[in-house]
Amino acid sequence: MTSPAPISPEQQGAYARRIADQLLQTLPPGWEYAQVHFREIGHHGEVNAMVQNVAGGMEQWSPPAAVAERFHELREAMLGGDNAWYSARFEVWFTGEQKLRMNRSEEPRWISPPPPEAYQEELRLSGGSAQVLPDWLRAKLG
Predict the structure, then answer these.
(1) d(CA 141, CA 117)
(2) Which of 131, 124, 11, 2 lies closest to 77 in space, CA to CA?
(3) Domain 9-140 class?
(4) pTM of the predicted model, to two decimals?
(5) N or C end of the chain: smaller count of CB under 10 Å?
(6) Structure confidence by residue, pLDDT tens digits, 19-63
(7) Which of 129, 130, 127 is nearest to 5 (CA)?
(8) What residues have CB less than 8 Å from 37, skipping those under 6 apart?
(9) From CA 128, how far away is CA 113, in angstroms rounded?
(10) Domain map of the chain by residue range?
(11) Are strands 58-61 and 44-53 parallel, antiparallel or unpaired?
């Protein structure tokens, strides 16, 4: 299996805009800032979020499944070689500012750790070569 061609910065930006659009459609009323964390290995994924309200208080928020789907689409487009990432943090402010950070090297901080088969699936999704995977992920493969 060959690795897909890397997506361009413009394509990556288009995916990030889809994430932002989905968030803006679903954030609770009175929000000023939101931080969404997405983690995925193989087909094991999870998402959690915090929202700051206009009074300055931070509260947990459960984003709808469509938000996780937008993250998954971005990750899927970037799988293979040095493009793959395992967790991401998306921040959005009421002013319109946005920031997306992707983690390509560190093991995600799981809420619910993936089952062993998720690591094997990740190897398959990344083209079948463990050489492109970070050390922590190769160690999980045994």
Answers:
(1) 9
(2) 11
(3) alpha beta
(4) 0.91
(5) C
(6) 999 999 999 999 999 999 999 999 999 999 999 999 999 999 999
(7) 127
(8) 47, 48, 49, 87, 88, 89
(9) 22
(10) 9-140
(11) antiparallel
